[in-house]
Give the backbone structure.
Amino acid sequence: MTTYHLRGASPAKTRADAVVVGAWKTRQGVALADGAEDVASALGRSLRPLLSTLGFLGKPGEVARVPTAGKLATPLLVLVGLGERPRDRAAELLAVRRAAGVAARSTANAASVALALPASDPGLVRNVLEGYLLGGYAFSRYRSTSPDQRAGTVSVLSSVARRQEATSAFEEAQVVARAVHGVRDWVNTPAGDLTPPLFAAEIAKATKGTPVKATVLDEAKLAELGCGGLLGVGGGSSAPPRLVELRYSPADAVAHLALVGKGITFDSGGLSIKTAAGMETMKCDMAGAATVIQATLAIARLGLPVRVTAYACLAENMVSGSSMRPGDVLTIYGGTTVEVLNTDAEGRLVLADGLVRAVEQEPDVIIDVATLTGHMMTALGGRVGAVFGSDEVVESLVEAGRESGERHWPMPMPQDVVDRVHASQIADLAQHDWIRWGGGLFAAAFLREFTGQRPWGHLDIAGPGFHKGAAAGDWTTGGTGFGLTTLVDYARGLSAPAASGV
Ligand code: BES
Ligand code: ZN
Ligand code: MN
């Protein structure tokens, strides 16, 4: 077990196995960051030439380990690069968050670590600890040998350590990081071990001992309700679909937020089958569901005065004699008929059932999260999510991401695309566009049809939901948990409208 402390102590005097400081890359060379002042003066003039000999420039991801030979209370000084000094607050938070993630992997064998990264306000404190906790994530369920040891004591050093806002930010960061770990664990679990029934059971288990109530709707119940999207998509799998509904209803709720997540536990494409390469990472296609479930748990653990109703739409998109076919018509919960034209555009079908269920609860706002389209990955790459929806919701989601280490980019839903959603030859709506371009826009416009004109936001996280490369900053290989901090911060904004401008 690791314990975490927020301290005001000087990094030069703090006793630990290693002390971590940040370094900006400047035109004049390395500049030690805010928080490292004492370290700089204790080491004096010897540090700069040493860093130059080591070739340390302060680039993001760069690490220099310097034995302190008695000049500091810690035997080892670890410098982590922060990159060039950012122009805005969001970039600064992100730089610090990523450096803290690098720090976690660079001090894996130290029994105690002191982090003296920039932490002069509560937002920075939060990003230091979240970055550290997320960068140190490891998925070891399938390893027969246990991974690196974790530090027993981690101290975050901050000049505002005694401020109430800083201690709350510090506590909250631990709740949020635990939830992101939960998302990563689920996303990283192989699809064969997390079919819709198994995932539903895991979700129910995760709510035990929390104020969140879970209801699992099985295939018989879904048939009774007429959830044709989930049943159609899930029909090809021997593991039947599930709809998991969560409810968190605090007595002091000031707003009602509905969350809907895409939970395709494996996406083979169905009869419109994917290529082998296209399928490789498709265990990640339930990341949206994992994110909304863990966000609900985090909001409840933080005790935010926001009522949350969450829907995890779980199905496995497989190939068999009972798979839905291109050309089939499905009836979504509530009666809207949809002509299926590409069985690989399955996410919108399961989300449609969930969205209509959400609308019935008359929430103030609905947000869905989905690894929905490769198109948005093509457009924005692996680090930035696409956001669609009502203007004020989109704006608040982008802002929530800026505070919490995630970048979302607003995307349009042009009228010609909206028109084509209504252009099915035989049903109310067409599920797939005959025009190949802008497929993420069509998907979003399709979803909007099921939102009952309520304020709505849609996060397409196909790019940033899963990280194929090596660990970098606060991201480790595999599931990232992208979207979670944004949802929790968005809920925070709903509970404090004056402060956040929502
Ligand atoms: N799950 C995929 C989207 C995806 C792609 C997520 C890459 C993560 C990484 C989704 O179900 C899908 O297959 N979308 C199609 C949509 C098309 C058929 C309109 C796609 O991206 O090609
Ligand atoms: Zn999919
Ligand atoms: Mn698909």
Q: What stands out?
A: The mean pLDDT is 96. The chain has two domains: 3-159, 180-497. The two ends are 38 Å apart (CA to CA).
